[in-house]
């Protein structure tokens, strides 16, 4: 599929179109539906790997997905690329996380893995959400040699030595901090922006026709890369200060109002 005037919009998931326990606002669903009806493309662009994307999110209807913070890209039925970490590297990270008192969450295309023995009590509800929504993809870590992951996230426990982990892997991974002790280790050569670049090359859509919505630091490069990068109203003030375009909160019509303002719907 190629086009000169077709617009393409990239949507982060968490905090942008969806929130744990809140789901997806009806006006966001309608806005994305209208966007596609008008001949434009809607793409997920998420830190989640494909194994972690709930059916209720996919059911909204998208033209493709950039998943795992740019480690996997698919447009329609065409997979453009997929990054898989060496298992030896994944095992090393898990062992270090255990040593530093961090629960490892390796994330792959087919499975999400939990080092459940180190799971904080306040994270159990999120774990249960994954079990309820993508249960067949959820694996409790047992045999490290069987893990197939594209990136590794972690949840720091009390007294965790996150600094030592970051220092050891700083040359191979970009580490994103999400608050509440949640960290995301993304292979250095990958980002949401890299994923977008590959999509534009494949579709022939010009950069002047690109839009993106996000709310967190793993969205920073994405929002800077596209022509119109929009920060969600529920982002931190520090994050919002980096961008010309800021919309309302995800559950206060943020997506709908912004797409309407850009005359995409």
Describe this structure in words.
- This protein is α/β, with parallel strands linked by helices.
- It has two domains: 8-82 and 191-261, 3-Layer(aba) Sandwich (Rossmann fold), CATH 3.40.50.1000; 87-187, Hypothetical Protein, Haloacid Dehalogenase-like Hydrolase, Chain: A, domain 2 (2-Layer Sandwich).
- The chain is built from nine helices and 14 strands.
- It has helices at 26-37, 55-58, 87-99, 124-134, 162-169, 192-203, 220-225, 237-240, 254-261; strands at 8-11, 41-45, 64-67, 72-75, 78-82, 102-107, 112-114, 138-140, 151-156, 173-177, 182-187, 210-214, 228-231, 245-246.
- It has an eight-stranded mixed sheet.
- Strand 4 and strand 5 (78-82) form a beta hairpin.
- It is globular.
- The chain starts with 7 loop residues before the first strand and ends with a helix.
- The relative contact order is 0.18.
- The model has no long low-confidence stretch (mean pLDDT 96).
Largest β sheet strand count, sense and barrel closure: 8 strands, mixed
Fourth CATH level, the homologous superfamily of the largest domain: HAD superfamily/HAD-like
**Name of the CATH architecture of the largest domain:** 3-Layer(aba) Sandwich
Mean pLDDT across the residues is 96
- Report the uncertain regions: none
Helix content: 25-40%
Roughly how many Å is the radius of gyration?
18 Å
Order of helices and strands: EHEHEEEHEEHEEHEEHEHEHEH
In DSSP terms, counting alpha (H) and pi (I) runs of 4 or more, how many helices? 9
How would the global form be characterised?
Answer: globular
- DSSP strand content: 15-25%
Q: What is the CATH top level name of the largest domain?
A: Alpha Beta
As for the number of domains, it is: 2
Please give the order of strands in the largest beta sheet. Answer: 5-4-3-2-1-12-13-14
Total DSSP E strands = 14
